[in-house]
Structures are given as C-alpha cells and as structure tokens.
Amino acid sequence: MTRDKQDILCIGSVLWDIIGRSPRDMRAGNDMPGRITRIPGGVAMNIAMTLARFGLRPVLLSALGQDAAGDELLKAAQGMSLVTDHIYRSTRPTDAYMAIEGANGLIAAIADAHSLEAAGEEIVAVLRDGTLGSTDAPYAGCIALDGNLTEALLKQIAGDVAFSKADLRVAPASPGKAERLRAVIGHNGATLYVNLEEAELISGARRLRTAKDGAKALLDAGAQRVIVTHGSQRACDACTRDQYEAAPPSVVAKRITGAGDTFMAAHIAAELQGKSRAEAIEFAQKTAAAYVAGDDRYA
What we know:
Order of helices and strands: EEEHEEHEEEHEHEEHHEEEHH
Helix content: 25-40%
CATH architecture: 3-Layer(aba) Sandwich
CATH superfamily: Ribokinase
Strand order of the largest sheet: 4-1-9-10-11-12-13-14
Largest sheet: 8 strands, mixed
Number of domains: 1
C-alpha cells in the first residue's frame, strides 16, 4: 500500500472485548442476569472501526498472538477493510479486555494488554525502517495513539524524529493508565483526548468541575491542544489560542465500553473531512451519544 492511501494510523491495543451487561443497577459482589458478548475491541481497534465507518482507511499497528484468537481477530479486522499488513505477530497470547456493566454504568474492568506491552518497539518499527516513515522522511499524516503502550515507548515516540511531523491524536486507555500520557504532553503535534478524571490525573489538579476546567489544567501543564469530555456534560476543545464547547444529546445509556473511543474517532474523522473545530466537537458528541444509546451503526 502506498502512503497516499493511508488516511490514518491507529497504534495500540487490538484485542477481544468480553463484556457482561445487566439491565439492572449493580454494585460490587452482585450476581445478576444479563448478556455476555465477545467482540473485537481495544482502543486502537475501536477507533479504527469507527473511522472506517466514516469512509476513512485506518492502518493498524499493534501486536497479535500467533494463536487462534489472533487469527480470528485478524480476519475480523480485514473483513471491516482495516489495513492489517503491519501488525506484529507475537509468540505471546492475544490480549483481552473484560468488563461488567450495569444500568448504572461500568462496574469493573480488567485489561490484559501484556502482549502489546511486551512487543514494545516492534509495533512502530515500520515508522522507522522506511516502510511507512523514517528519521529522514518522518510520517506526516494523522496518528491515533493509544495509552496502552508502555510509558517508556510513549517517551521514545515523543522524542523520536520519526514522529516529529505527525498529527498525533493521543488517548489514555483508562484512568489507571492516564498518567502515562505525561510522556507525550509536550509533543508539538499532540492532541490529548481525555475525560475529566484523566485530566486531573495527568495535570495533577484536583476538584475540577467542568471539561473547561480540565482543559485549562492540561494547557497549564504544557499540553498544546486538548479535548476533554465529562460524561453527559459539555465537552471542551482547547488550545493556547481559543476553545470550543458542545453538550451531548440526552440519551438512555445501553452500553458504556468504547464510548470514549467512538467520540475520539468521530472527532478525528470530522476534522480530516474538513469540519471546523466547533462543528467537529458537536459531531463527536452526537456520535458518541448515539453509540451509548445503542445505535447499530456504531456497534
């Protein structure tokens, strides 16, 4: 594939999501009736799937095991027209994510991304060896970067000439991994996508009340541009020059896992397709709300 056909690179976790959902409110220790699903997931995969639905051509850079789970996931990605040519096939087992959701939201989750973390620099080798880019000819397109990568690798990417010209869109995999993004906060081309809790963790600020507060805290901490969400409240897109806000439509939540990835992908797609910053954040809010409401177009 030639570089002019690559709309966006998606670097990070590609794994199986195992999600248990109950229509009832839940708390720790509950045993409830519900449904259990197994679907392709992971931050990079979720972003790529949504980008493909908006007519873009995502290229996955990740690690999959040389096992049946990896083979099945690779086939699923190819079936959705995602480019898988550069995925690193590891001798470790394919990663997985498990979550429990109730009517009152996410109850608990465990992300097993050990194979991705162990693969390290193998994941991004094609951006250094001339396949997709090099230090002499850095990749200059858009990259969606997943915080499931190790802090060491994120630090390398932040200072690597091969990434110096990229439009770098970065998201933490979860609040538990949010502080890793401090490694890339100063990259001149980086846009951080975080929720309010993650903004507090990265910036070190406390008692932030709004997405606007979170955006200011991150800019004060050295970020160049940030997109901060706050559940059903207004989201904020801010840089050192200006800011834009948009509220999501009110919906009844039928799922939670993947909502942030859907928001990020919709926002990236909107900007790549020429929407203004004000239009892009409004579009992302509407798309994420439709996903949470169970719209099958974003399933």
